[in-house]
Amino acid sequence: MIPLTRYAASPYADALGRIPVRAAELSVLGGVTRYWDYGDPHAGTTIVLVHGFRGDHHGLEPVVASLGSARIVSPDLPGFGESDPLGEAAHDIDGYARWLRAFVAGLGIEGRLVILGHSFGSIVVAATLAGHDVPDALEPAAVILVNPIGQPALEGPRGVFTRLAIFYYWLAAVLPERLGFWLLRNGLIVRVMSITMAKTKQKGLRRWIHDQHDRYFSAFSDRQVVLEAFKASVSHDVSEYAPGIPERTLLIAAEKDDITPVAAEYRLQTLFPDARLIVIPGVGHLIHYETPGQAASAIEEFLAEGAR
Predict the structure, then answer these.
(1) Bridge pairing between strands 31-38 and 21-28
(2) Span between the terminal Cα atoms of the chain, in Å
(3) DSSP category for residue 45
(4) Cβ-contact 283, 291 below 8 angstroms
(5) For a disulfide at 57, which of 74, 170, 187, 218, Cβ 3.0-4.6 Å?
(6) pLDDT tens digits, residue range 192-222?
(7) pTM above 0.90, yes or no
């Protein structure tokens, strides 16, 4: 897809540039998962990130740039970014949960493990951790969900947009392969999504957000992967899994989130055995782009309390 904007400089580039990063890969469930390993590989705490629908690891880099001394591992979800599709599982919630368990096991992490999921990644993380009866169950020291999907997508404040999205993906599925793939990567549709979700009034930041979506929101391997993942994203939400997650959990929600309203996030908090909720004012579903520093501060405080 040709970007609709010229390159826009990242406001987080300097901070990110000071953090060492290593690209690596693991074979997981019949496909190669590419991941980026930030910070000190010998740090006592490792945070594994799971990005949102149609994104890749770039989306969470502003949060990485704002965090301190932890090691951070950020993969591209299977079928997105530079990662292969899964060869031994469907790209549904169960498939992504199997992948996350196997991926983390393959990292051989020593020390304290923390799992962070953003948006669709919050559903993947929740589904993964609620499955304590599987042989390779994960038991992290803490869980962090940013912009968690706390209720069914159709019940959100902009449910009409979800219905339009369902029609859009249905149309992409029934069209001939080439035409459907073109529709899914259409730059104008990506831009409308970006404009709708961005809440900041800072022109430079908005320009950079649109640039990021232009560059990375259509980095998926094929039509089937993105259609399977979309179906998973609107068929499940974190509330289904919250009661089965005993680990200390931090929910970082947004005052102006178009997908899950704040009231639903407060309800979601009560479903967890041990969860804290913070709400960042003035931002929507793009906490990771617009207020990563505030999110990182909340994360560091939460993890420091857990260490004590």
Answers:
(1) antiparallel
(2) 48
(3) E
(4) yes
(5) 74
(6) 888 888 899 999 999 999 999 988 888 888 8
(7) yes
